[in-house]
Amino acid sequence: MLGEINLEKVGISCFFLSYLVAFAFEVTRLIKKSRTSRALMLLFAVAGLCAHTIFLLVRSRAADLPPLVGSQLDWMLVLAWLMVLFFLVYSLLDESSALGIFFLPLVLLIVGSTYFVGQEPRAVMEGQHSLKMAHAALLVFGISGVVIGFVIGLMYLVQHRRLKRKHGQAGGLSMPSLAKLARWNRLSVMLSFPLLTAGMLTGVGLGLYSQRTPEPVQLLDPVILSYGVVWLVMAVLFGWLLRAKPTAGKQVAWLTIWGSGFLLLTMIGLQVLNMDSWHS
Amino acid sequence: MNLQVVYCTHHGTDLTLREKLAFSDEQTARAYDHLRNEFPDSEFVVLSTCNRVELYTAQESAKNVPTHQQLAEFFAEFHKVPREELFDDLLERTGPDAVRHLFSVAAGIDSMVVGEPQIVAQVREAYATARDHRASGPLANAMFERALKVGKRIRTETGLSEGRISIASVAVGDFGKSIFDRFDDKRVLVIGAGEMAEETLRYLHAEGVRDVVVTNRSIERAKMLAGQWGGTTAPFDQLDELLGQADIIVSTTGASRPIVSCERFQEVRRQGDPKEVFILDLGAPRDFDPAIGEVDDNVFLYCIDDLEATCDQNRKVRKKEIAAAQRIIDEETDEFMQAVYHRATGPIIRNLREKWNEISQLELERLFGKLPDLNQEDRDHLEQCFNRMVNKLLHPPLEVLREEAREGTPHGLMDALKRLFHLRD
What we know:
The complex is a heterodimer. Chain A folds into two domains: 8-123; 125-280, no CATH class. In chain A, 76% of the residues lie in helices and 0% in strands. Chain A has helices at residues 2-8, 12-31, 35-63, 67-70, 72-93, 99-113, 129-165, 178-210, 222-243, 249-273. In chain A, α2 (12-31) runs antiparallel to α6 (99-113) and α8 runs parallel beside α10 (249-273). Chain A is flat and about 65 Å long. Chain B is α/β, with parallel strands linked by helices. Chain B has three domains: 2-163, Beta Polymerase, domain 2 (2-Layer Sandwich); 167-310, NAD(P)-binding Rossmann-like Domain (Rossmann fold), CATH 3.40.50; 338-420, no CATH class. Chain B is 57% helix and 12% strand. Chain B contains 16 helices and ten strands. In chain B, the strands form two sheets. Chain B has a six-stranded parallel β-sheet, with helices on both faces. In chain B, strands 2-3-1-4 form a four-stranded antiparallel β-sheet, sandwiched between helices. The two termini of chain B are 15 Å apart. The chains are: A mainly alpha, B alpha/beta.
């Protein structure tokens, strides 16, 4: 019982600050290679992830809903959780990777933006539990892929700029080669677009199903329309990628950044604006 | 304890003399035989590399310690070099300075390229050779083993060995590996067949490059270089076609004007695949027009000056770490010397303790003989009491000896103890 009370005291600020400290240690590694800084960065990131997990579990138990469908806040925190997990696994595999410099600010942005979104568990439409879970999960995985693509695109451009400007590697951090970044960039879009499409389709299915319920979803809902536009942008990017030459690494990076940046802005913007919508 | 090094290095001695004083493997073996006959109480280690020739000596007793002059004479006789020619160049360091010097050498601080890693292997090899020839002993072994540990510690705890500092290693490690993920599927075109091309090929080969094409105006030299790296040669007049096929281009022709103009390269790119191409223009003057670097996003062109700038930057970073490395060397030297001084007092302490224990045992046996009715418990009590008494009496002089040994071997105190308590060596 005592354990439960203590766990409930874990708040967003706990893991937000942990990630912030981890980011600060990561920045020091830009200046000088240091095993201590890396160890402390990993320690704070792992501590943050533990607090993050506990927070999601406690909220899920209190609302009696899975975190993905609990509220806007829970959904965004799951997205950030997936990103931290990806970052930690990669950092453990590659000791000198500069991934944290690019990844942690985005995690902080997403976690920070949850201060402005609705925290109350939303009223959930009755029935079709599996479809709702699939809709939320596909979207969160798809968007995670897009965010990872955004970071990789950014890393590609920074690495490309360094090589064109003929600057040697500085400090204790390095970035993957252009060839590897281009491959990952392409892969992230190739994987995330089908997930987003499947997420959209399950959403449309849910919308149609809701027409038979007492509270039907407005298919012209601004949030749904905005996501539709984002999906179209991603579809164009996906189509272009299928036809693009493998040597067009820099163009792929720029397009991924524009496409995924637009998605991120739309997603965070809509959640923060807290529009009167079925999704809100 | 007598520690000494007589040496000459790239810092103050020119290569001609260093070459004359250097020891080959066979000469090292003969040198050890000679030194052992001449100075039977001493231990020796010879460290001979292209940048330094050093002779370390270590001896526990103060008798017949080889002097700087005697060692200089040994160098002169052994290498048949006039004594006057080498005496001013052969420097000497003794005691903690000799230890500090060895630790600096093992750490790479004293190297021509600060922090270079080869010196560790060279120190390790010199030490192993001395041991194989039974030229080193407990003192020299302790000093060299500690030096290897210090070298490792400095490389781990400071950034002295961080960053690449040769043109070829920077080209491949800092730039090539940032462009390509793998090298085993890349075609390397070498234009010209200079030394720099050879060194760059060594690094590229280590990364997995197997497909090498060499083109040169002199086909003989091209064949030699291609043969060395399992590559092929191609006529120089096929250069445009070769440029279009290559992923990595290394150029070292030494031509007086660029051999590839921007227009020529643009045409090559238009006709071929616009894949990533990594161009190392190692010619001076340049072989590639600098504007080629801006032809498209996938062309990465580096000239000697670009690579040298990165080398300089890395050298500066290493130099900044010298102070941190020096602190570790001072700390390790102090610790090592304390252990050495303490080791010198060991026989005296052992002698003193043995003598007093012997006396206490004799007195105890006499007492037990006079008191035959004592039970085992009382005997144990008495024995413990005598042991305590000996320890308490020994404690003050030994403590003073230990204190004195921190600053150096306490010869005066050791002599006094020997005379006061009739101790033998």
